[in-house]
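Write out a record, focusing on structure:
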Amino acid sequence: MDLEYHYQDLYETSIKKIKADDYQIDTLIHDPTDKRFGITLLIRPSEEVKHNIQKFLKHLKTIDPNQYYYENSDIHITVMSIISCYNGFNLDQIDISKYIEVIKKSIIEQPLLEIEFKGVTASPSCIMLKGFMKNNGLNAIRDNLRIHFKNSSLEQSLDKRYTIQTAHTTVVRFCNPLNNKTAFLTAVESYKTIILVLLKLIT
């Protein structure tokens, strides 16, 4: 998969929709009655990486503070959505120890993961950092998860919504109509190719 082409195509398509007010607002993001839960395996960046991301978000907040900007505790890269969020899911329904066992079995030996956040992209519902994998470690773990979970009898929904192939991280979600939309999108555009951070991880 050509990630640069994918991110660029996604960006251009999404920005056109946002400019035409054809974007999606998450009305449940602040709703305390929201009962959508699931299981996702995540990578959490270091404090240094998150600090750099917050500089970018601080800029956007000055233009439109009424969107959902990810706090450091929320920032992540999705390795794999094991059970996609749905209303009514509860951990009491599963044996979590069996999931941990499969995940541990799926982690590759010497899993050095290198991911570079270079610029931004968008979807009709959010702003994301473009993540580029510098080696195959992340995809190797994903492939192992697919094999081991599909060979088990555990509840899972791997790849049912889409086959994850990127290393992006979502940092802004639209939860209100965009104020000063032109200035907001101009600011996003100014970060389109800036290298924000190089994230090195050993899982």
The mean pLDDT is 89. The radius of gyration is 18 Å.
